[in-house]
Amino acid sequence: MKQLIYYIDKGNGHYEPFYEYMIPNVGVDECYARQLCTYFIMKGTQYELTANEMDGDEDILVVKELGRNLSGEDERSFRGEGIHIEFRSPNERENYRLFSRIPCNSHFEVLRFLLKDVVDVPGIGQKLVTSTEIDEDRGVYVIYVKDLEAV
Q: Given this model, what pLDDT does residue 24 score?
């Protein structure tokens, strides 16, 4: 893989290049982590992943625009502070309640969490993953979780 390119699905088979990451600028591990995220937040807009493809040396993510991103409780930016994960409720009525935050040493550490259906949330215990997100605006991965009993 030489680059990761995001495309926006504009409908009727029309796709526009949206954003790209070149491997010399970001590691392969970060590109893989991004590919595992269900949602992508950039410039206040939320996008949903609809396809994950490869074309030669390019990895391609196709997203559809969902509209303005709704902020959750206690949001903060992690820009310039390293790699972080937040664990949040997927429930809008709870204002996407924050359960926990953790710093990570690498995107490989993040990958371990993104690959799981059930994760150990620090200070809380095991929770079921409902979706994952990369919030480009705040520089953080977000894992939305709910109680295992709520399956």
A: 80
